[in-house]
Amino acid sequence: MERLDLDLSRPPPLPGTVEECHRVIEALWRALGEFQQIQARVEELEEQLALGSDNSSQPPSQDSPKKRAERKGKRPTGRKKGAQVGHPGHERALVPAEAVDEVRHYFPHGRCECGGSVAVRGFRPHQVFDLPEIRYRVVEHRVYEGRCGWCGEKHQGRLPDEVPRGQMGPGLVAWIGLMTGRYHLSLREVEALLEEQWGLKFSLGAISQSQIPLQAWLGPVYNQIGEAVRKALIAHADETRHYRGRSIYWLWALTTDQMAYFLTHYSRGKGAAGELLGDFQGILVTDRHGAYNDHPQDSHQYCWAHLIRNLERIAGRKGQAGEDGERLLRAARLTVHYGKLWQQSHYPSDRYRRRLERLKALFRRELEQAAQRHGDNKTGRSCRKLLDDFPRFWTFLDHPGVPMTNNTAERALRPYVIWRKTSFFSQSHRGDCFRPMILSLVETCKRLKIGVYQTLRTICAQGMAEGEVTFRLPLPEPQPLPVASPAG
Hints:
alpha/beta, 7 strands
């Protein structure tokens, strides 16, 4: 490319001929084109530097220190730290007398200093909670053998069916499953905790092998959760990375308020989403990942929190794109605000619904104008994509009871993400299968507010004694959605 060598310390000499004028003009146009390309690249890099959890799908843990400070920054209230005046106190309730393990009595002196006798009229209970010194319990099963005194035939006793054939009983196997699946400990940490707390020494391989029968015993309950969640009227779906060694797989989640079903898959595409959803025919709430778009549009709700993050990114751009993004962002936030008010009123309010219908029309009009104004640049393409997805943002208006965000699925995945950060994670196909099973049980028990360890122990005891697990979780039956009054 021809460049102009100009001395900026003094005005350039005027071209003497028409040809020189054309040459200078062409060089200036080329320089202007270069400048525009550089400017676009600078804006793109600035936008990437400004990305965070508030305007993209980036997790909060990957935010820059500046972003974290902005996220955590709060206006000072002027109040002192700690409980405020008038705050109701919280005290531990006394354990009933029949549940107390030991009672110790402390009486006053029988005679007062004045010489009179002291009559006991009552007592003030003071309960102290402590942990007992614990150790493991060993049961030795002696299997005897003998010979017939006449024919010499050898005879041998047999272990009962309920006695485990390995060295780990149901309580220990359930405890290992609890430590990994509920508290996200790595196998090495489980090995250390077993020795520290219980004085038990098992090798890393033995602890890992204990998951093989547990995985088989979890199968019936895992399938029960999967079948039940696919019959729900409303379900949330999401996915996150799953690592097997250096390979990237994906953990998929299909959840409701009371159930959580997980699945590992090598793909993040529509095939994996179809395997997760199965025959699900209810209303699906997701982010804008295209793998879910085979689900019918009229029963598919996109997450408004994800939409707001996308609009935050547009609003952060310079010039007209930023102004259009700000208007779209205000409309989206108003929609979420009135949507929540409408839901809190249990859907009888025509006023809130009419406002939502007006916001819907306004939002579409702003998108159409922005798409036309920005043409084929990235802001225009983003707005056209939002117009293509537009019906999926408003399913909650046609089906009251449908949440506007996908928080239910994201909360279900969060324990898994923490577990992924604190362990080497899966190293085999067996690990890929075990993790969604144990996570499905743990997260479902948490939602049903039933004990995870006792459930695991029951499953392990049945599996060891009977070879078949008949235990099933008390999963709820689907409930009908509330009906909204039509807009007046």
